[in-house]
Amino acid sequence: MATYSIDRLKGKPYFNNNGWWVCAYNFDPEVSKNLTGKKITIHDVTLRDGEQTFGVAFSPEERVRIAEALDDLKIPRIEVGMPPASPEIREGIRRVMQRNLKAEIIAFIRTMKEDIDKAIDSGVKSVLLEHIINPYACENAYGVDKAQVVDRIVASVLYAKEKGLKAAFMGWDMTRGDDLDYIREVYTSIVRQSAPSYLVVVDTVGVAVPRAVGFIFRKLKEWLPNTPLEFHTHNEFGLANAGILEAIREGATAVHTAFNGLGERTGNAATEEVVAMLEIMVGAKTGIVLDRLMDVSILVENLSRRKVPLMKPVVGPGLFGLETGIGVDLHRKMLKAGFHVPIQPFLPEVVGQNPIKLVLGKNSGAATIEYYLDKLGLKATEDEVQEITEQVKREGRLQRALLTESQFAKICKRVIR
Fold first, then answer.
1. Count of Cβ atoms closer than 10 Å to residue 211 Cβ
2. Chain centroid to CA 42
3. C-alpha to C-alpha distance for 267 and 260, rounded to whole angstroms
4. Which residues pair with residue 132 across a beta bridge?
5. Pick from 127, 128, 60, 59: which is nearest to 99 by CA?
6. In this structure, are residues 76 and 104 in contact, taking their beta carbons and an 8 Å threshold?
7. φ, ψ for residue 229 (rounded to 5)?
8. What are the counts of helices (DSSP H) followed by strands (DSSP E) for the chain?
9. What domains can be seen in the chain, in order of their start residue?
10. C-beta separation of 320 from 348 below 8 A
């Protein structure tokens, strides 16, 4: 038996022959501490921050349809919209509330009495109150000092709680402030005076490197050891997912995400990417139904009118078409050796994608040609296989597209004697 047979991998957390094969060192104790096995709450913001994507607006019917899809996926928290933004959004929220979904439905509002009243009018039982925490913006844009910021937030949280709402607080643009004492005093005062259900750390414009995210969480855990902390970030520099891992490692119990990475500017961390990353790559537990991710992504793509890129992680429609000769050759040989996940990190079925497909194009090699010859019941000599391969490559470059089986058959007809 070979030293590195499939038997060596059986039972390992990084290998599931019907699911995935990822980096073994992800699960080394030095790497996986506070990640593997940890329960993480997914707080989906598709219907709020996602709707703040330029040009995206959900009708009441669409809001309900997406909320139902998220609930079927077992998303535990759905941020359903901002009631004061428009009567249409309030109507959509009311309709969602009438569905009696299992998920906790949360309205996003400002620290203003009238916003809280509109949230109550829309029927929600939970609110996430927001106020900017960047001291430069507080003073220069809004004319409020630290004491006034605290008073405004505390009064709003207390008012929401008096009205019977579950109230949490989210301080946005925190990461561009440079005064730790300001953050400490504001947050400890808020917790001491109003006891919100949880606090959300926000990297509003995606400017904190992952280590900085971890640093912020360590400080907050030191100051507020008994307060649940969550993370909301954006993807300006492509670091949203990495920041989420650091936040979780340092104590975050929930992360805020939007399907297909919708959201202002570059968007939020993508729900489907974060869920797959946590479940597959580090063995964290989200409770989300993985094989329905693709269906929800397609629904959100259609209703948001925002096309998912062909090669987008997890849900891109072009992820599982194998074209390169080396890749196809490895794929076929590893399958024969019993490995079901030879060249991808996970099988497409895991997230509800269509099965792996060998495709014909400019990068095709002899292994792909032989596969399609077998599929069509054709026989060719070694020289003919080489000539067919060259013609497929040439045609793929000329058309800048994949070839159909019909086009392949025509090439074979010209070459095979």
1. 11
2. 9
3. 9
4. 172
5. 60
6. yes
7. -115, 140
8. 15, 12
9. 24-304 (3.20.20.70), 321-415 (no CATH)
10. yes
Nearest to 107 by CA among 87, 80, 70, 77: 80
Strand 20-21 to 15-16 pairing:
antiparallel
Check if the beta carbon of residue 63 is closer than 8 Å to that of residue 81.
Answer: yes
DSSP 8-class letter at 56: -
Q: Residue 114 corresponds to which tokens in the numbers above? A: 């009238």
Q: Write out the chain's pLDDT in tens, 417 residues.
A: 568 889 999 999 999 999 999 999 999 999 999 999 999 999 999 999 999 999 999 999 999 999 999 999 999 999 999 999 999 999 999 999 999 999 999 999 999 999 999 999 999 999 999 999 999 999 999 999 999 999 999 999 999 999 999 999 999 999 999 999 999 999 999 999 999 999 999 999 999 999 999 999 999 999 999 999 999 999 999 999 999 999 999 999 999 999 999 999 999 999 999 999 999 999 999 999 999 999 999 999 999 999 999 999 999 999 998 888 888 888 888 888 899 988 899 999 999 999 988 899 999 998 899 989 999 999 999 999 999 999 999 999 999 999 999 999 999 999 998
Q: Which residue type is seen at 303?
A: L
> Other C-beta atoms within 10 Å of 191: how many?
18
**Inter-residue contact 245 to 280 (CB < 8 Å):** no
Q: Which residues contact 147 (CB under 8 A, 6 or more apart)?
A: none
Q: What is the pTM of this model?
A: 0.92
**Quick check: helix, strand or coil at residue 308?**
coil
What's the Cα-to-Cα distance from 247 to each of 14, 45, 87, 206, 266, rounded to whole Å? 22, 18, 36, 14, 20
Task: Provide the token pair at 33.
Answer: 């501490």
Q: 141 CB contacts (<8 Å, ≥6 apart)?
A: 132
- CA 23 centroid distance within chain: 20
Specify the amino acid at residue 158.
Answer: L
CB 250 within 8 A of CB 273: no
Distance from first CA to last CA of the chain, Å, rounded? Answer: 43
Sequence-ordered strand ranges (E) for 307-351 = 321-322
Q: If you search the block for the tokens 């997912």, which residue do you land on?
A: 241
